[in-house]
Amino acid sequence: EDREWTPDELKTYWRGQLARHEPGTQGRREAVNYVVARLAGGQQVDPLDEDGLLHFMSKTNSFNMSYAALKTAVATQRQAGINGTDHTQIAKALRAELEAVGDVRYWEGSFWQWGGSHWTPLSEGTLRRHVQDSFGHLPLAKRASDHTAIAKVLADQLMRPLADEPTIGVNFANGFLTSDLVLHLHHPKFGAAYTLP
What we know:
Layout (H helix, E strand, L loop, with lengths): L6 H14 L5 H15 L6 H14 L6 H14 L6 H13 L4 E4 L2 E5 L4 E4 L1 H12 L8 H15 L10 E4 L2 E4 L4 E2 L13
């Protein structure tokens, strides 16, 4: 884990994982993620060697992941600077993935995600599974204690009240009705954690 692997060692690792895990299994998926993370983590690999490895993986991964998809995955991780050597870095990457779906906050001991009409609870179990699936191949996201630590860092990053502008009103399916009987479009700022018919 502490040294760079040569392209031949990465290819040997990949072949070993192909023999160890059946096509389409989570183990094989994790092996894909591991090699991608290795290539993205600052290793000095000749571009031709990297291309050869990714072409080989695209032909043998059994997930229909093309060479282009694998190349994009490596490039994306390189841009994000994720090498998985610190929990804060992984928490930031997790936050970016979650916020691609909807705004996320941590308030009064719970994670919440904006769903379009109101805030819904986001369980820590769901977050930990997300860490396992997306980042479990990284060095500091492998153990249950890592997943818990990443969730704690994420909670610190996201701590903020649900309501940006505390407003008296009722959140209906067609909008947020304020006490002066004005119907507003749904918005996270109202802090509604429910939607009535």
